[in-house]
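Minutes, project check-in
Item: structure for the 111-residue chain
Input as provided by the requester:
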Amino acid sequence: MAAGKGTFHHRLRSWTGMLTILSLPVFLYFFVCALKKRPEGITEWLSNPVGAISTLIFMTAALWYSKLEFDEVILDYTDGGLRSFALLANRLVAFLAWVAAVYVILNMWLA
């Protein structure tokens, strides 16, 4: 790892972890309230700005935090070409999952 990258990575992981922890209760509260209305409740919840934005914040923080944690595993247990490939694959999978989640949420919110 390049000099100085570890500190930023550690801080970024702390920030995303805190955002995940802080946004989880809001997300869970609204999600449980929406579940009481069956599938229509989920659609209604993601169609309003509060539900869509809280879900976007939570999903972004959780996916980013998961990506950073898996980067740690890759850096600890691989080396050479496998490390480069695994880090690239991890970045790509996390990005594609985030794009899919954002697309679905924005499609429900703005439709």
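Outcome recorded: The chain has four helices and no strands.
No further action items on this chain.
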